[in-house]
Amino acid sequence: MNDKSTYSLRLPKSLKNEVAKMAKRDGTSLNQFIAMAVAEKVSALETGHFLKNVPNK
Fold first, then answer.
1. In three state form, how does the secondary structure of the chain look?
2. In 3D, which of 6, 2, 3, 1 has the Cα closest to residue 31?
3. What is the pLDDT at residue 31?
4. Is residue 27 left, alpha or beta, with left meaning phi > 0 and alpha meaning psi from -120 to 50?
5. CB 37: neighbour CB atoms within 10 A?
6. Is 19 exposed, middle or buried (0-12, 13-18, 19+ CB in 10 A)?
7. Which of 25, 26, 33, 56 is surrounded by the fewest CB atoms within 10 Å?
8. For the chain, what are the domain ranges?
9. Distance CA 25, CA 17 (A)
10. Please, what sign has the CA dihedral across residues 22, 45, 9, 2?
11. Confidence (pTM)
């Protein structure tokens, strides 16, 4: 079973070039770097949502 999907991402060339440089410095592929960046953003947003909904004691 394949749990991955393909998504065509449009980035300004300047941003794509900077991300490619960062991925290379990080020793990861461009795809892996972007996937991790998205995962970090999702985690941050979910954490914020969770903390807003924790009842005060």
1. CCCCCCCCCCCCHHHHHHHHHHHHHHCCCHHHHHHHHHHHHHHHHHHHHHHHCCCCC
2. 6
3. 95
4. left
5. 13
6. middle
7. 56
8. 13-52
9. 12
10. positive
11. 0.78
Length in residues, the chain: 57
pLDDT tens string, the chain, 57 residues long: the values are: 578 899 999 999 999 999 999 999 999 999 999 999 999 999 999 998 888 887 876
Residue with token string 């991955």: 4
Tokens at residue 2, please? 């394949």
